[in-house]
Known about the structure:
- Belongs to the transpeptidase family. FtsI subfamily.
- InterPro entries: Beta-lactam/transpept (IPR050515), Beta-lactam/transpept-like (IPR012338), FtsI_transpept (IPR037532), PBP_dimer (IPR005311), PBP_dimer_sf (IPR036138), PCN-bd_Tpept (IPR001460).
- GO terms for molecular function: penicillin binding; peptidoglycan glycosyltransferase activity; serine-type D-Ala-D-Ala carboxypeptidase activity.
- Pathway: Cell wall biogenesis; peptidoglycan biosynthesis.
- The active site is at 301 (acyl-ester intermediate).
- The chain has 19 helices and 23 strands.
- It is of the alpha+beta class.
- Strands 2, 3, 4, 5 and 10 form a five-stranded mixed sheet that branches. The protein has a five-stranded antiparallel sheet with strand order 12-11-23-22-21, with helices on both faces.
- A hairpin with a 6-residue loop joins strand 22 and strand 23.
- The longest helix is centred in the N-terminal third of the chain and has 29 residues, at 15-43.
- The protein starts with 14 loop residues before the first helix and ends in a 22-residue tail after the last helix.
Amino acid sequence: MAVTRRKKHTEPAGTRWRFYTAVSLLFGVFSVLIARAAYIQVISPDAFSLQGDMRSLRASSVAVQRGTIVDRNGRELAVSVPVETVWADPKRIADKDALADEMRWQALAETFRMNRKELVSKVDDPSKRFVYLQRKVTPSEADYVKQLKIPGVYLKTESRRYYPTGEISAHLIGLTNIDGVGQEGLELLYDEHLTGKPGKRVYRKDAQGRVVEEISQTDAQQPKQLTLSIDQRIQATAYTELKKAVRYNQATSGSAVVLDVETGEVLAMVNSPSYNPNNRADLQSFRMRNRAITDSYEPGSTMKPLVVLGALEKGRHKAGDTIDTSPGWLRIGGRRVSDPRDYGELTLSEVLEHSSNVGVTKIALDLGVDSLLQTYADAGLGSDTGIALLGESIGLLSGRRRWSDFETATLAYGYGLSATTLQLANAYNIIANGGKKRPLTIFRQESPLPAEQVFNPDNTRAVMHMLEEVVRDGTATAAQVPGYRIAGKTGTTRKTKATGGYGDEYVALFAGIAPVSDPKVVVVVTINEPGTDDYYGGTAAAPVFSKIVSQTMRLLNIPPDNLDDTQVHAAGFGGDK
């Protein structure tokens, strides 16, 4: 009987080890994948989402133009216009070996008035992706850049600030830098108001560049417009006449201000020398100062009407009173106050008409220094005008306790204090407005700002009629305007030296009101350091006033109130042959 024996099954050597190794490897791989997935999804998802977004998300800006500045009639004083800017991608230039074409780069350099090596040095670093070559080029230059077709050189649209009135309104409007940020004047003061905020659109693109998802969109905040009180027609007239006067009188500088009596609006504010804000190549700081509000001077005889007004207010004198100015001089504390000649007995009106230092000194001494200083303060001297412009000076009106009689005398005829051209205009505007004091403004007003009654209307009216005599028969006959009744006062002051005392340089001033029957405008003209022998307010500043007012009356369509003036002729049909 045969016996069958069963063979024992044996595994090849190392099989179990290989199995466990494989299982371990698979488990390890899956563990790493799971850990990596957990890290990506749970622990640090933002970094990888950001990388994905960088490949697919796009954002575009919705640009807004800077707000415009216009005059009271809507004429543009500052406007933003679209222009092209040339920029380059140095990496693309390197990839395309664009620098090898030297002729095109030479042509581009000549277009920008640059050296070719200087231009090439801007784009020879391939690690950069954006470089400005020339900001805000002319349309012809932009077209030429397109024609050159240099790889890696592109155009982008920006905006450029343009000032249609140029140097005429430069001190008031100011200017922006190349990036459109305000640097001077109203452009700086109201930069945020004029800027607005650009809009933004965020969307997702696929690999083919197609928009597949709109993520978000933020609307642009449009900038606001500034509507000024300036009448550009009057502004241009005032600047033209002032510039001619500064040149004719060989003066260092000059300023002129025109105010609307009823509202306190500034209709014109000009200075000479000026600058062209459209040409930034040779800007000089001394030309950029708004002297009408920054430079203060001793106002001289233009203060004398306020002395008379103070005397009327305090009841120390009446309009018909007389002052004895004989013998034409007065000694006070060892000092001498004198007139050009002995005028004898003078009425208050004649004191102003002859600009008598002796007469006004006697009035001031009788009034007292405290009342005199209070009158000046009520007229706005020693404080800002409310116009809120950058750099405005408040002048100087000392509040010290003790004053000598001679110092009181000098205050009476405009020394020992200082005022800007705008402050002086404000003081005369109070007289013209029946004693009402209101803040001045550079913005157009639909209705006048609230006013404070600081002087009696009867007294201001009396002083204004006295000032009319000054223009008619006194020191200011050159300020007359055919067909209109004019009131005003001249002033001529010597300038102090840096080392103390007074030098040989003068300031000529004239402040006036027109027309007297129904005051509409106040005009003040300052001519600083005339270089001729006619350095007086009546010969250097008054004629400028006359020309400005003559044009202003016509532009504002104000009817004549002095038809008896033989220089005014009625228009008619036909005429003498």
